[in-house]
Amino acid sequence: MGRHSLEYPKEALNKVKRVYALEQIHSLVNSSPLVHVSLSPSSSSSPFPVTLPMIGQMGSFSRPSASLGDPLDLYLHGHISSRLFTSPSSTTSTTNSIPVCVSATHLDGLVLSLSAFNSSYNYRSVVLFGHAAPVTDELEKVYALKLLTDSVVPGRWDAARLPPTRAELQSTAVLRVKIASGSFKARDGETGDDRHDMENEEVRRRVWTGVVPVHQVFGSPVASSYNRVEETPAYIAEYAQEQTRENAEYAVNAIKAQKK
Amino acid sequence: MGRHSLEYPKEALNKVKRVYALEQIHSLVNSSPLVHVSLSPSSSSSPFPVTLPMIGQMGSFSRPSASLGDPLDLYLHGHISSRLFTSPSSTTSTTNSIPVCVSATHLDGLVLSLSAFNSSYNYRSVVLFGHAAPVTDELEKVYALKLLTDSVVPGRWDAARLPPTRAELQSTAVLRVKIASGSFKARDGETGDDRHDMENEEVRRRVWTGVVPVHQVFGSPVASSYNRVEETPAYIAEYAQEQTRENAEYAVNAIKAQKK
Fold this sequence. Notes:
Chain A is 30% helix and 33% strand. By secondary structure, the first copy, chain A, is an alpha+beta fold. The first copy, chain A, has a single domain (22-257), classed as Electron Transport, Fmn-binding Protein, Chain A (Pnp Oxidase, Chain A), CATH 2.30.110.10. Chains A and B meet through strand 2, strand 3, strand 5, strand 6 and helix 3 of A and strand 2, strand 3, strand 5, strand 6 and helix 3 of B. Strand 8 of chain A pairs antiparallel with strand 8 of chain B. Chains A, B: InterPro entries: Pyridox_Oxase-rel, Split_barrel_FMN-bd. Chains A, B: Pfam families: Pyridox_ox_2.
């Protein structure tokens, strides 16, 4: 139980630590249906960074068999009209890459302690820093699009209409983010309170303490008005059920996590 | 059905539009357990923006009775050690404020079309741009902390141990973000496909199309090991059930949304 954090390891770290931290970080990104991608102000006229919700997945085009514990790139995709793909820095920079911060967060529970100030969330969160550049190689682009499509529902790429048309490939941009650093932060376990509250009998008798588990549900698939396939294919229905069960189990088990 | 967007209205816009856009934008922020707050690179040595998951709520200290359709501030809180509260620009800037981008995103469904490239998510997303500054007035700080605590479970502030201790107020920082602009984007409805795929009999017979609704569940509250209140209070149990029901209803109803 408690707060955990892991740093994206530098070359110097030993092998065991490296694999574990990378695996945790990469797994969380890959199990997040959405990531938030932030870029620095795109022009001197606006002081604000810009954040875009996108689909992202860790992968390796040069070594597709790489595991989640290996160094990987982050792939992102969006429509070419998206702010990220038309950012001035993406065309004027000499390196043709944009510094980005990518964030993936899972909310796992509402932690309600005696004091509002000791209340918290159970959560898992990853932040990655890296340089995003457009993927121009067509084979790499198709690799990334399959990776991203299959992250929504595994097997969907091969099940959908293939191959991509020329217009589809041209209107969809893919970015590869070379990761420079990152970290993993999490909180699990039950509530925690200060001694002065724990010893306050009136407060202990009056204030309920505990955790409300929170998780994401993938519900029953609803066929489109023009669908002609009678039964929902197993790869979709089973994936939805399995993800829902895994998410629910994580949220409940997180509450029982013991102090380390 | 389809894609919707709303801009945070400028003074010039008429009253009706203003209220509607603000209400949509503010409601989405307030129904998000987490927002992602991005700031520009905090020093010249790092090129990367930084994104932090935080609890945020729209409110008005000067006019607590303001409705969601009125102009409001965004309140954020975190531990004073947090990067956001120790950002160099928060102390060196003459205005003592940090430009931030705040993002809140709800995933509502996996939209699986005949072509992977017409596949999408049903979602609702808000981005706000504004200037964040620490709240120094103690009454405003307590107002904001109650607002934020009650956003987790309505009524929790008054139900928990009160009043806050001096140490608690000192170790918790609150930021007020003055909103400069923002926007709301959403996608709802069923799948959509291009004519060449709709007319392809082989593809239509083979590829299932439809939407997997996605929503967040607040599960059964789990009492802590030191809880002494026998029954889960109604304000917690009912809130969890009601939120779960509302979330599920939204995700399913979003699929049925008609084209506008």
